[in-house]
Amino acid sequence: MHRWSKLFIPTLREAPADAEVASHKFLVRAGYIRQLGAGIYNYLFLGQRSLNKIIGIVREEMDQIAQEFYLPAIHPREVWEQSGRWTGMGDNMFRLKDRKGADLCLGMTHEEIMTSIARSELRSYKQLPQIWYQIQTKFRDEPRPKAGLMRVRQFTMKDSYSFDIDKAGLDKSFDLHDAVYRKIFTRCGLKFVAVEADSGSMGGSQSQEFMVYTDAGEDLIASCPVCGYAANLEKGTSRLDAVTEMEPTGDGMPEPVSTPGCGAIADVAEFFKISPASDIKCVAYMALKRGSASKDGVTPDTWHGVAAFLRGDHQVNETKLMGAVGAADLRTMQAEELAQYFNGPAGFLGPVGLKPDAKPLEAGLTVVVDKSLEGRKNLVAGANQLDYHLRNVTPGRDFGWTLAADIRSVNEGEGCPVDACNGKLTVGKAVEVGHIFKLGYKYSESMGARVLDVNGKEVTPIMGSYGIGIERILTAAIEQSNDKNGFWLPATIAPFTVMVTVTNMGDALLKETGEKLAADLEAAGLDVLLDDRDERAGVKFKDADLVGIPYRINVGKKAAEGKVELVTRATATSVDVELAQTVALVKERVQEDQLLAVSV
Ligand code: ATP
Ligand code: MG
Fold first, then answer.
1. Closest CA to ligand 1's atom 30
2. Is the CB of 39 inside a 6 Å radius of any atom of ligand 1?
3. Is 149 inside a domain boundary?
4. Under a CB-based contact definition with an 8 Å cutoff, are residues 537 and 551 in contact?
5. Would you say the CB of residue 220 lies under 6 angstroms from ligand 1?
6. 354 and 465: one domain?
7. What pLDDT is stored for residue 9 in this prediction?
8. Which of 31, 162, 437, 496 shows its CA 20 to 30 Å from the CA of 14?
9. What is the model's pTM?
10. Span 494-510, mean pLDDT?
């Protein structure tokens, strides 16, 4: 049995000044974690105990479909060069040199390492499918580490990788992961949703994220309350209402109009008395094209101008735009770059007169037009001249583009994209706890993994990769269950299931009753923490409310009548219980919770 008086549980009254989200505040206040550096944390006793419980669940479920490995966290440069990601990973990769000057990196993910094993060991279709996983530390030099454990530079991931002989096999491995992930998150007590996600730079076909809705999250999810469609805004789309086109003026060709001071969409709409949907918005970016480094030489990274055009009432989704042009990063165009590419000032940029490159990210300007502008006519656009706009602008007739793509973010209230569904989409914030992904041939191909098929012919195995953020499960659980006094974890992942709080250790009867009850609870298979500190009851109750343990038994004055108080943290309610029935009741509650979790 664990006695609080002997443990190190450094609870705090105040949260760190920079903590904005509940999980960050409470993980520190409850003594789970302490910060060592930006995005780098020490996990103390309670934190590690909870993470170990999460890992236990993940391992138990993963063992049903996969084999556990443990790979190094420190990798030679060569293996990352074989896939092209030594440069591709950019500044997110921690790099170091050994004493001989050789380049190494800290592992941010393990596709390359797993593929290198497959390449040297797998020879025949008879050995497939294989699913290999590990639970291990990952290092990512995130540009904006934040929110406590939610986005850190060192974290624990369960990552698995599947190798199959064909697409049907990959579908099966993917579906196995989908099912196991649902079990894992359910057992961890998370209210999660599975959403369609962007497969972007990883180069695969199908990708699904597991999300927990919380305002503390950094992802936006569009979902349909009618049919259940759900997608990350980086991937999701919507059905737009039909727009009434304006009548052309004059000869119907683009005509400059003086629009003094109308730099903003709202001003332009007001000036022309049009809906922003009939105004073409321009967002100008510089996009990073990754160079490459190989034995044949080095091509440096380069930046290229990109003009994105879309409806005035739409917003650019930068992930979609990066995917469309194949950029590794984006930044806003500066004034001197605007002058170079457009010859016009911000607020009055437009597509007419530009000379789009034939291919994205070449020497000149890449022009990307959102799909929703295709087929439109008689629109208003900036004239690339201060205080002037053009009207009667018709895409295709008056200007061309490098490519047309879906680059807009879905807005709340737009139509569900699913055929025959009339639902309206809602948009909410969420945090990603897991991600499953059909990689395809990217790594097996580039790294030369081959097996013989049933006809003795050499073929490339097809791969999937699948991740779960262990710390993200803990933070998401806290985000979904907290109040002003602290948080409560599901019994399955709490550091302890139940605590026994002896209100006055100076009272021999209370002390004895508490000790015996804690021992009995433990004998019944529950994970018990006995608060045997010489503290005032008020201090103990405050700490108990803070530290995430779902059940508590207060042993106080009523012990003389053979009664104790059972407090359920989730509801902040308490009931008096006969001492003799306490163990059975707590067990029952915990089991009910687990059943509830399993039936979600
Ligand atoms: P994000 O979009 O949040 O950066 P990601 O797409 O980079 O996540 P993956 O590479 O798919 O994430 O990693 C698998 C899982 O690892 C994620 O689903 C998430 O739970 C977790 N994870 C990723 N990055 C971090 C991080 N910096 N800190 C904590 N957990 C992380
Ligand atoms: Mg990331």
1. 469
2. no
3. yes
4. no
5. no
6. no
7. 98
8. 496
9. 0.90
10. 96
CB of 434 shorter than 6 A to ligand 1:
yes
Residues 296 and 199 in one domain: no
What region does 494 belong to: left with phi over 0, alpha with psi -120 to 50, or beta? beta
Q: Is 471 touching ligand 1 by the criterion CB < 6 Å?
A: yes
Pairwise CA distance, residues 376 & 394, whole Å: 6
Our answer on whether the CB atom of 111 is closer than 6 Å to any ligand 1 atom is no
Domain count, the chain: 3
Find the domain containing 264 and state its range. 255-405
Q: 264-284 pLDDT, tens per residue?
A: 999 999 999 999 999 999 999
Distance 469 CA to ligand 1 centre (A): 6
Same domain, 63 and 194: yes
Best substitution site from 152, 157, 232, 439 to test ligand 1's pocket, by max atoms within 8 Å of Cβ?
157
What is the pLDDT, as a whole number, of residue 147? 80
Structure tokens of 308?
């994105």
| pLDDT band at residue 600 under the 50/70/90 scheme | very low
112 and 181 assigned to the same domain: yes
Collect all residues with Cβ–Cβ distance below 8 Å to 284 and sequence separation of at least 6: 305, 306, 307, 308, 332, 333, 337, 338, 341, 342, 346, 349
pLDDT tens sequence across 396-444: 999 999 999 999 999 999 999 999 999 999 999 999 999 999 999 999 9
Give first-to-last CA distance, the chain, whole Å.
32
- Looking at residue 599, what is its pLDDT? 45
467 lines ligand 1 (CB under 6 A): yes
* Shortest-distance atom of ligand 1 to CA 159: 14
- Work out whether the CA dihedral 343, 347, 351, 353 comes out positive or negative: negative
User: What's the rounded Cα separation, in Å, for the pair 54 and 433?
Assistant: 12
Residue 534 sits in a domain whose CATH number is 3.40.50.800
